[in-house]
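Morning run. Coffee first, then this:
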Amino acid sequence: MKQHLRMDERFQRGAILALALVCIAFVVHEIFGEHGYLALRREQRDLNELQQQIQELQQENKQLESQIKALKSDPKAIEKQAREGLGLARPGELIFTLPEKHSEAEKPSATARDTPPK
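And here it is:
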């Protein structure tokens, strides 16, 4: 009879251990699985970034729409675009264009520039 109780106790311990391992496996899967908690957090972060991009693009669209409206109806906006964008001037006006400043990395080296040809 004692052996029978020991077998039942061993079976219960084994069953509890197996159940605990299954539970641990489910928890690990829920955290690290394809549709687990970490994947959900990553998707939420991506969603927030996309929503931010959408807001920025909507703001840019509003600005462009206002520019289009101004260019269709405002003579000052048309003149500004013609002067700045196209480099146009009124008759008798002179346009002076200054060279853009280059950073030190873009400038040619002094030795290559000042070396006389052989």
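The mean pLDDT is 84. Good start to the day.
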